[in-house]
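QA checklist item 7 of 12: single-chain prediction sanity check.
[x] sequence parsed
[x] length recorded as 194
[x] structure emitted
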Amino acid sequence: MYNLCKHPEYLKPLRDENVKSGGVLFNHQNNELPLLDSFMKETARMNPVTIFGMPRKVMTPFTFSDGTHVPAKNWIVVPQQCMMKDPKHYPQPETFDGFRFVTHRDEGAVSESRLSHPSWRFPFWGSVKQACPARFYVTDMTKMIVSQFIMNFDFKLADENVPGSFAWGPLRVPHPYLAFLLKERDAGVVPEDY
């Protein structure tokens, strides 16, 4: 919701896509709304829940094939936030691009990569081999909720100066002063002001 408020230029294409597709249906898992899926994946990329992920404690000393040695009782983590903002993998990684993960073709937007698909460059759901089993459910539920918001409400931030989140240890949590103003909308009508 925060990124939709900060980037209102995405609302019209997302609403148009929703109307054209007939909305999000739970039984059509991951087959619809590539623009919304891309917007959500970009939001997750820019704002991962944890700064690092998949923590593992080294129980016995281990030496990697490149000679890197890790003594016992140390922790190894995946630098999730750094990886998802790496310019080798994402052009202009600090710039929010809600449609980064779609290709626009004559027949419309086509997903290059889905929010629910883990990869080594997008460790949001964990590793490729052991990704979160609930990722499909979470993605579908989030799509349905966001879809309902964008179709049925106009919204804005109560205070534009409040950041979306802050770091608390390894976690990124919503800012306690973050608030949204909602107004039910008439279908097809987008008011100039609230």
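[x] summary fact logged: The two ends are 17 Å apart (CA to CA).
[ ] second reviewer sign-off
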